[in-house]
Amino acid sequence: MRPLTLRRLLLQCLLLTVLLFFVVVVALKFGAVPVSLYALARDLLRVIFGQSSQISSDYGLIIQNIRLPRIILGIIVGASLSVAGTSFQALLRNPLADPYVLGVSSGAALGAILGLIAEPHLTLAPAFAGLLTPLCAFLGAAATIAAVYFLGRREGQIDSTTLLLGGVITASFLSALIMFLMSIVTSSNTRGMAFWLMGNLSTSFQKSVYWFLAAGFFVASGAIYTTANDLNLLLAGEKEAMHLGVDVRRVRLVVYVAASFLTGLAVSVSGAVGYVGLIVPHIMRFIFGSDHRTLLPTAALGGAIAVVVADTLARTVVAPNEIAVGAVTAIVGAPLFIYLLRRRLA
Amino acid sequence: MSLLLRLAALAAIAAFLFFATPLRAQSASPDSLSAPAFREVVDETGRTVHVPQPVRRIVSLAPSMTETVYALGLQDRLVGDTDYCDYPPDAQTKTKVGGGINPSLEKIASLHPDLVLVTKAFNLPETVHSLEGLGISSYATDPHTVHDIITSTKKVADLLGVPDAGAVVGDEMQHRLDQLQHQLATLPPRQVLFVVWTQPLISVGRSTFIADALLRAGAVSIVDSSQDWPHVSLEEVAHLQPDYLVFADSHSETVPAQVDALATLPAWRILSAVANRRFAVISDAVNRPAPRIVSAIEELAKQLHPEAFVEKPSDAKEKMVKQNFSQSTKPFQDFAFIKQNQPLVTHKTVGECACAL
Fold this sequence. Notes:
CATH architecture of chain A: Orthogonal Bundle
Largest sheet of chain B: 4 strands, parallel
CATH architecture of the domain at 189-309 in chain B: 3-Layer(aba) Sandwich
CATH superfamily of the domain at 189-309 in chain B: Nitrogenase molybdenum iron protein domain
CATH topology of chain A: ABC transporter involved in vitamin B12 uptake, BtuC
CATH class of the domain at 189-309 in chain B: Alpha Beta
Radius of gyration of chain B: 24 Å
Number of domains of chain A: 1
Largest sheet of chain A: 2 strands, antiparallel
Strand order of the largest sheet of chain B: 4-3-5-6
Number of helices of chain B: 16
Number of helices of chain A: 15
Oligomer: heterodimer
């Protein structure tokens, strides 16, 4: 492992930030409604300088109220999933670990669907009505990761194979529960639920939700970043890390809680966007090496880029209709993963 | 011990398989023997079906077919329907055979129906094939326009041996639609967004009978998709700015709160229809290709074009009232309109016709 210099870290991040900026501009430009680059630049400058009241054209409003929030959501979801995936892979020392394999997404989906079923029976204030589903999804994710963690414990130790298998089984069990619920629910519209399962970013939230998501992301990834050095040592094995002075229990607790929180955050607003947490860390490790001090921030940026690109495709390929972003990430992600796997074996 | 158990299970399965096959053959044969008269018809999916005549026992696998059977006054011959069949209320008391996608074949077979009514949109081809395998006749409808619904109703009536009742129901529907067309003739259509689901936004495509129903109500869907249930981009909707959102809901009282919730979201707020709370709520009958759809069309027309129905401008409150229309419109309208808000009356009339036959 090459010694880390601040210059190298900043250079890598800068490179990806420029790429992310470019991707965001492209994503802002393309959509169901065509927008010229000039109009885009003008309106963006107005937003940046706090003169959004001057934006009166339909296009400006579409960009400001629909496209930009959606891209921001994509950035947060992608970065969260990717950081969570990176952390799980390091902690479990298993390249297959990712929030979806561990069953967290299914738990969140089950929570969301329970929320959707309960919603008509509750009288909620309009401002809160839209938040019930994400909240239930978050609780579902949290409950699932706790259950999977419990399943993965053997004699007080976490066994990564048991944990992964426990996650896979939990995921399929929860999926079965979802299928059961969807086939017995007669009143609600199951079409909305089905779309939720596939993962999509078309849901709009109140402004405060975006602030909450961003704050949650920075707190949780910051907590994970404090353990970056320990995660590097953990790659050599838990015992070895312990001999080198790593407080393995503390690292495990911090990373588990924070990574689960990130997953719950992402899934509660977007549904099941698969493969991002699995693939992006692998690609970033391939390009920038496996030093977690650079891997975590680059994975965050890479995840953001991946999801924004995937969602731009989801919005534009069959415009004015849309496809679920989860379908795009799975179609691109699965073959890519197999390619990476074969390459590693060769 | 476990070996013994396994052997016992295997034996049980073997015995079941051994007996099941002849049982199936037996259960199919008495039907074909005891029902000498068959009628060969081609249903709306192009399948040739043999239907025993007369049809005495009907199972409906779609709410719309259940409503059609009631509208034709044949409710006494309906021996089973689905969990979703909730209209008229009496339909809820019929024996339930499960959902439309996953009905219990055993339950259907145990009801010994002469005919199972299905729709292409609500049911699966697998169900039809399985019924075929059990020797049970089924007939599928597949209407894509309001006119198709009228034609389907008449064809089903003919198949069930009550062509006159079919003609009465069909002509009544046609008459009310003609009347409506006449009243709306000079008015420009409203641009509407028919909302099936809000987050994500799902609407209806052009080849659905719902899109056609909107046209009949003096409205044009801004969504023009070849998919039946397209996931529509909110951007496109914001660009096209519909005059009204249209919700079809059996719980109409929850819709205003739903729109209030949408108005708090940045992406939805920029739709002027949401910001100004311009929306129409109609009965979910519009989702069902059955005679009652005409009432839903009339409801929508009244909310979108109140000026065509009352001399004085109606206030916003009145627009929301669904069931109490008959009182408020009675003074102005001819008898065809008084009828429309009392679908049960229609059923009764037709029922009497059928009985008289």
